[in-house]
């Protein structure tokens, strides 16, 4: 297989940099940005990512973050439904150009799912929290239905006395169907699975669901991995068909991809228990009324190492982009991109490398307006330590500028203190180069700015109201953003 490689070294964390040529607001073709640690708690594990009308991006972790077309932070939002901030774990565009967000709240040691409906600026229109749909109900994904309502998939505490094919489970899969304002119409609990991960609306208004372990996702106790599966239901959530796939490892924890034409596309590997498995995608027939959902076609891709397929998304030319990971022995690391035709034939591949000492896990990919791709994932030290959200923007062939990278905070020599701060905020830099700073609120409102040179400077924040803010420092060769609290 021909390979088109682009070498990328992730040499550290905390700071976001891009060495592509950007001046006077010019858009960068490729870049890498990281956010996390104390400055962005809760953003280190990204959920969904979407490109907006202004070519910026919105990403959800536990909070919601917007970056511009070059990956620079615009705002960070938290949502409070009356019992403290809630965690956002997924979002989906709606037919009114707004968004629907799934959230979770922990109230008196019990989990409750919520819906948050927003406009296109992500300002709240309405919210609903569901207290009586199941014990410790936790949402995984959400979709808008054809009538304007919503359906949530997730998990809740199961009946451990229930004896299904695999016995009782501490959790079960749950569907929650609502009307267009979030009022519950019905709920369905499946004791034979431990969780519903993701789903799509079928042409008959039913649902195609990817579950976790249970009757249709059975652990193979011979040591040969887990058999992946799909469930088909009618429009009321009643199960009409199921399939588990014995000879491949099709991912169940990532978004199901709607195929061009009919069916769905799943991604995984030929067998994860093998020493050197290959990436596999399969086109699944979910339209016919057969109980078993057949594989229409499948393709495998591999090079010299073991590879695992993680996510797949449709592309504008009728093909697909596959996000995979390469590994040496059993340690996954390098990003492996595969562009395919509509029939799954490989058009090009690309590898994005990193340093072996770093943990590197990417699970989201989308095509961008310029034909390139945006990847969202998690990086950090290979052992214990903080994790960071990492965004990678590639060109249309999956390339990233070889000079793009992320540097250690110690290399950049920037220190901002104290935190929390009262009247003064101090910036110390290892070099005396000139720099500019901006203090903004979490929703992007500019509070204070200035330009200075030298290795140390005190910023008077005595007139800044009490609250949490972001300070962004820009110099000739780097940008750093940190969160601080004004007391």
Give an account of the 3D structure:
- This protein folds into 2 domains: 31-410, Integrin alpha, N-terminal (Methylamine Dehydrogenase, Chain H), CATH 2.130.10; 413-486, Immunoglobulin-like (Sandwich), CATH 2.60.40.
- The protein is built from 1 helix and 36 strands.
- It has one helix spanning 409-412, and strands spanning 31-36, 49-51, 57-60, 64-67, 73-77, 87-93, 99-107, 110-118, 124-129, 138-144, 150-157, 171-178, 184-190, 196-201, 207-211, 228-233, 239-245, 249-250, 257-258, 264-269, 279-284, 295-301, 306-314, 320-328, 331-340, 346-352, 358-367, 373-381, 388-394, 414-417, 424-429, 435-441, 446-452, 456-460, 467-474, 479-486.
- Strand 8 and strand 9 (124-129) form a beta hairpin.
- The longest helix has 4 residues, at 409-412.
Highlighted features:
Immunoglobulin-like; disordered N terminus; mainly beta; 5-stranded antiparallel sheet; Methylamine Dehydrogenase, Chain H; 487 residues; 4-stranded antiparallel sheet; globular
* Rg, nearest Å: 23 Å
What top-tier CATH class of the largest domain fits best? Answer: Mainly Beta
The number of helical segments is: 1
State the end-to-end CA separation: 59 Å
The residue fraction in helices comes out at under 10%
Main beta-sheet strand count, sense and barrel state: 5 strands, antiparallel
* Category by helix and strand content: mainly beta
CATH topology of the largest domain: Methylamine Dehydrogenase, Chain H
Low-confidence stretches: 1-25, 163-169, 214-226, 405-412
What would you call the shape? globular
> How many runs of DSSP E, i.e. beta strands?
36
What is the H level of CATH, i.e. the homologous superfamily of the largest domain? Integrin alpha, N-terminal
The pLDDT mean sits at 79
CATH architecture of the largest domain: 7 Propeller
Fraction of residues in β-strands: over 45%
What count of domains describes the coordinates?
2
């Amino acid at each position: 297989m021909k390979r088109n490689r682009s070498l990328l070294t992730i040499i550290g964390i905390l700071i976001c940099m891009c060495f592509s040529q950007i001046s006077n607001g010019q858009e960068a073709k490729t870049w890498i940005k990281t956010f996390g640690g104390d400055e962005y708690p809760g953003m280190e594990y990204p959920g969904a990512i979407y490109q907006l009308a202004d070519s910026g991006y919105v990403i959800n972790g536990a909070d919601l973050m917007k970056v511009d077309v070059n990956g620079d932070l615009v705002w960070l939002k938290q949502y409070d439904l009356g019992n403290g901030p809630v965690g956002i774990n997924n979002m989906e565009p709606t037919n009114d150009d707004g968004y629907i967000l799934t959230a979770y709240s922990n109230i008196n040691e019990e989990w409750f799912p919520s819906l948050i409906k927003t406009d296109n600026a992500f300002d709240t229109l309405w919210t609903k929290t569901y207290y009586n749909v199941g014990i410790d109900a936790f949402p995984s994904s959400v979709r808008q239905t054809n009538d304007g309502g919503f359906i949530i998939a997730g998990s809740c505490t199961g009946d451990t006395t229930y004896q299904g094919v695999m016995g009782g489970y501490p959790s079960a899969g749950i569907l929650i169907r609502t009307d267009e304002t979030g009022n519950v119409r019905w709920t369905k609990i499946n004791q034979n699975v431990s969780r519903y991960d993701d789903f799509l609306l079928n042409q008959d208004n039913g649902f195609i669901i990817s579950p976790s372990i249970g009757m249709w996702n059975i652990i193979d106790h011979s040591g040969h991995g887990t058999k992946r599966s799909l469930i088909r239901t009618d429009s009321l959530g009643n199960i009409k068909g199921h399939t588990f796939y014995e000879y491949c490892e099709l991912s169940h924890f990532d978004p199901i991809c709607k195929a061009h034409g009919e069916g769905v596309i799943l991604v995984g590997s030929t067998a994860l228990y093998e020493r050197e498995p290959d990436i596999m995608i399969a086109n699944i027939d979910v339209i016919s009324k057969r109980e078993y959902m057949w594989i229409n076609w499948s393709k495998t891709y591999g090079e010299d190492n073991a590879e695992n397929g993680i996510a797949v998304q449709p592309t504008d030319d009728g093909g697909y982009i596959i996000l995979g990971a390469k590994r040496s022995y059993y340690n996954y690391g390098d990003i492996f991109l595969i562009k395919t035709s509509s029939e799954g034939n490989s058009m090009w591949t690309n590898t994005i490398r990193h340093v072996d000492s770093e943990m590197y896990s990417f699970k989201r990919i989308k095509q961008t307006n310029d034909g390139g791709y945006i990847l969202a994932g998690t990086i950090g030290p290979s052992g214990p330590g903080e994790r960071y959200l990492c965004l990678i923007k590639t060109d249309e062939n999956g390339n990233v500028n070889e000079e793009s990278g992320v540097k250690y905070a110690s290399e950049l020599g920037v220190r901002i203190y104290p935190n929390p701060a009262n009247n003064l905020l101090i910036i110390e830099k290892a070099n005396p180069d000139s720099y500019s700073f901006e203090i903004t609120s979490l929703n992007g409102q500019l509070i204070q700015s200035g330009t200075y040179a030298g290795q140390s400077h005190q910023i008077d924040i005595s007139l800044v109201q009490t609250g949490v803010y972001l300070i962004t420092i820009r110099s000739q060769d780097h940008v750093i953003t940190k969160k601080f609290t004004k007391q």
